[in-house]
Write a structure and sequence with these properties.
two-stranded antiparallel ribbon; 4% strand; Arc Repressor Mutant, subunit A; single chain; 111 residues; mainly alpha
């Protein structure tokens, strides 16, 4: 890793399953990528919403993503696949019951 990026990005097996994160946080590189590239948020907006980050952190995360995009996209896909599998295996939940138009409120568990 380049020294400037290494200062901002860390990979710790005990944090976020070993996914690359902004140093000292649980904010993954891919989170920054999603916010910036897919949601269209500026680096300044990300820092405003996550004041524990600096502009340098955000830019380092984006640089790291673009240098390692194949591996990170694979990690993102694996996470999506796991979430889908867990949803299938767990069956319908309370939100599924609420979404059904014919749900009878008396059959839902109390809050």
């Amino acid at each position: 890793m380049e020294p400037i990026v290494a200062k901002h990005i860390e990979i710790d097996p005990a944090r976020c399953g070993g996914k690359p994160c902004i140093a000292g946080t649980r904010i993954r590189v891919w989170d920054v990528y999603v916010w910036h590239e897919l949601q269209g948020r500026s680096a300044e907006e990300i820092v405003h919403d996550f004041p524990q980050l600096s502009l340098s952190d955000v830019h380092a995360a984006l640089a790291y993503f673009w240098e390692h995009q194949e591996a990170i996209r694979r990690q993102m896909k694996e996470g999506e696949d796991l979430a889908s599998r867990l949803r299938r295996e767990s069956g319908p939940g309370l939100l599924d019951d609420l979404r059904r138009k014919d749900a009878d409120p008396s059959t839902l568990p109390p809050r």
